[in-house]
Amino acid sequence: MPASTAVLKAELRLFLREPFTLFWIIAFPTILLTILGLIPSFRDPDPGLGGDRVIDLYVPVTVLLAMIMAGIQALPPVLSGYRERGILRRMSTTPVRPGSLLAAQIVLHFAAALGSALLVIAVGRLAFDVALPGDLPGYLLALLLGALSALALGAVVSAVTPTTKATTVVGSIVFFPMMFVAGVWAPVQSMPGLLRHIVEYFPFGAASQALNQAAGGNWPDWTYLGVTAAWAAVLVAAAVRWFRWE
């Protein structure tokens, strides 16, 4: 435990020295929400959305975006870099196992994404009068499942790519479709029926729907929670199966 704590502290110092990573995880989702909130029509109730405002729908989306940024864009190059430089292999010969380093990275990226989520919710409330999540336990559960899916997907990307450059390329290829299914380009609730049903079978589409329902004060549909949890389980299993220490 002391060794793992020391690794976590060391990785935290390194993590804080990466301003671009911190910007994309913590600041970018809030900046995107602010830009969207400044569009007048997005602050008006929309009958096509059941009387909700577009900006109300985008708060859960940008919360999920922070998780996707941390899991798919930020985490994989770090893991691949450690493996490519032989750090994980060398650690396997010491009392500090490589798993301690991986756990530290996952904890730090999740913490950064959670901080970003809190910032998004606060700005949405204070700047655009977006209601706080009505069903907090359901919201937290959907958020945790979405974060687990994002981090596990990032670990899979790192596992199947041989170099850091390849990891960055593949991560970017995966990133943009995941942004779409999460509702960044258009909220899932506003998508046409068939497209919406397809998107809901992807982890971030289902998580977006679950977060939106919890934000409105309802317990998330178990179908959405189940889809997100199933994806998380499959991705974690794949990451464990395919990840290489060297």
UniProtKB/TrEMBL annotation:
Localization annotation: Cell membrane; Membrane
Record's GO cellular component terms: ATP-binding cassette (ABC) transporter complex
The ABC transmembrane type-2 domain, residue ranges: 20-246
Database matches in PROSITE patterns: ABC_TM2
Keywords assigned: Antibiotic resistance, Cell membrane, Membrane, Transmembrane, Transmembrane helix, Transport
InterPro entries, per database record: ABC-2_transporter, ABC2_TM, ABC2_TM_bact-type, ABC_2_transport
GO biological process: response to antibiotic
GO molecular function per UniProt: ABC-type transporter activity
Coiled-coil blocks: none
Keyword check for Ligase: no
Family the UniProt entry places it in: Belongs to the ABC-2 integral membrane protein family.
Protein name as catalogued: Transport permease protein
Organism name: Actinomadura darangshiensis
